[in-house]
Amino acid sequence: MTDFRNKVVYQIYPKSFKDSDGDGVGDLRGIIEKLDYLAELGVDYLWITPFFLSPQKDNGYDVADYTAIDPRFGSMEDFEELVNAAGKRGLKIMLDMVLCHTSDQHLWFQKALGGDETYRRYYILRDGRNKKGPEDPGEPPTNWQCAFGGSAWQWEPRLGKWYLHLHDVSQPDLDWTNPRVREELAGVVRFWKERGVAGFRFDVINLISKPERFEDDTEGLGRRLFADGPHVHEYLRELVASAGLEGMVTVGEMASTDLENCLLYTRPDAHELSMVFNFHHLKVDYRDGDKWALMEPDIMELKRLFAAWQTGMAEGGGWNALFWCNHDQPRIVSRFGDEKTYRKESAKMLAACIHLMRGTPYIYQGEEIGMTNPGYTSIDQYRDVESLNHYQILLDKGKTEGEALEILSVRSRDNGRTPMQWSEEPHGGFSEAEPWIPVAANFAEVNVASDLGEKDSIFSFYRELIRIRKEMPIVAEGGIWFLEEENPDVLAYERRWNNESLIVLCNFRRQYARLIKGCVSDYEKDGYRKRIGNYQGTGAGLRPYEVIVYHKVG
Ligand code: NOJ
């Protein structure tokens, strides 16, 4: 069996996980302190988001030196200790490789600014349009927009060109058509592999191959022109071969991708990646596809997307990374669940819903105790460049401050970046100092210590889901078929493997929900036995946010 199918990954955002030295910022030694907790949960891999040297304009996704550890997070000795201490507990480390762009503070960009031709060719530099003379920058080369708002091009007099940045202006995109760039980046990956890293997550890796011709996007902001670009598969195969990634666990973050490409990225015979993240299911509450326009989640659309991706990937032999949360997403309980009355129930339902699908599940720090959005009410509480930019954009579009703050409180990436709530101690036990970003106000009730103190904790539910994956090969190996497709309230599917069947029934509503099939307990008449659920017993329908998992052999 391929190594990653029955594994579970836990994502750590180091800045907000645990501060060991009292400066208000989490660090590598803080992770070491919490390894027993993670081992207890039962996960296999720890994906740690970037802790490399960085000016932190985009919280570490702006890398100034790929092989140096930012002192605010620790030292290389701390990292080695982390790898060893994790290994002793059966935990492996996955690192986050940001290979689409660097920071503008990276030596390569600095040399390019200094006029070094070799390094100018590391980046994507173009002349402006409609230049009125040699000194005139003209206009941006295309109408493409960057992910955080505004043009994806920046005029730089020291380069005498516009440079492309698909993210922040401080994150110039690397030119992957240059073989030397590709070789340098493969060297970075090898560097970490040699230090005991067992897997990699590749940041926005489907944006590395830009179109042959740079032209305006007449239908949108450019994304469709540079996502899954012309040479992306070739570059990935080359990276895998030259960095020696075959057999390691690799996951690609795929922005605005499609099923066809994701099959190519992950089919074992393609020799690209183990699995991919796609984000379509996390846009079902974007009104007209606009992240900054609020809407209740469209559960029917969520069901359709899961069905299409799950069955499509299964039929084509691809493999999904399964997730609700990460450092770019609001908390799922606040989003598709009920953070107040049914926080525990909905946290568990959402967990079972994806952990038992076909793919490898990812747990984002705090998800295993049902952490919620912090409900910030002032712009001073936000740190994220995307949130701060879009706050201004919303005001410019005529929203009031109150309306803009309301939108941020639902959509900001900072919702997922608040300090991990370990206890009811000051700052949630995350740090002895004021954290770099405010802790959520509910830390006294929602924290690891209080969750672990309850007999039906969310943590123990997650642990049980992980145990089920390890004990029942059907979870990792089985096929998937969706049920109740016309049911507006219930997401349901069946996994099948050999002569076994697993039925997962999830009520996404605050109200009692019925099955089209009939009574829930009819499954019991058919010989199914309840394997796990978030309520006692079974009824005719599903209680608010109820999940029931049935199993049958034969
Ligand atoms: C995706 C990362 O998850 C996000 O946090 C970052 O801002 C962008 N890629 C750019 O690196």
Keywords:
5-stranded antiparallel sheet; TIM Barrel; single chain; 18 helices; about 550 residues; 8-stranded parallel sheet; 20 strands; Oligo-1,6-glucosidase, domain 2; binds 1-deoxynojirimycin; globular; 4 domains; alpha/beta
Task: Provide a concise account of the structure shown.
It contains 18 helices and 20 strands. The protein is of the alpha/beta class. The longest helix is centred in the middle third of the chain and has 18 residues.
CATH superfamily of the largest domain: Glycosidases
Q: CA-to-CA gap between the ends?
A: 23 Å
Low-confidence stretches: none
How many H/I helical runs?
Answer: 18
Q: How much helicity do the residues have?
A: 25-40%
Strand content: 15-25%
- In CATH, the architecture of the largest domain is Alpha-Beta Barrel
- Write down the overall geometry: globular
What is the radius of gyration?
23 Å
State the secondary-structure class.
alpha/beta
**Total domains:** 4
Bound molecules: 1-deoxynojirimycin
CATH class of the largest domain: Alpha Beta
- Averaged pLDDT, please? 97
Q: Spatial order of the strands in the main sheet?
A: 11-10-9-5-2-1-15-14
Output the CATH topology of the largest domain: TIM Barrel
Q: How many strands, which pairing sense, and closed or not: the largest β-sheet?
A: 8 strands, parallel
Tell how many strands the DSSP assignment holds.
20
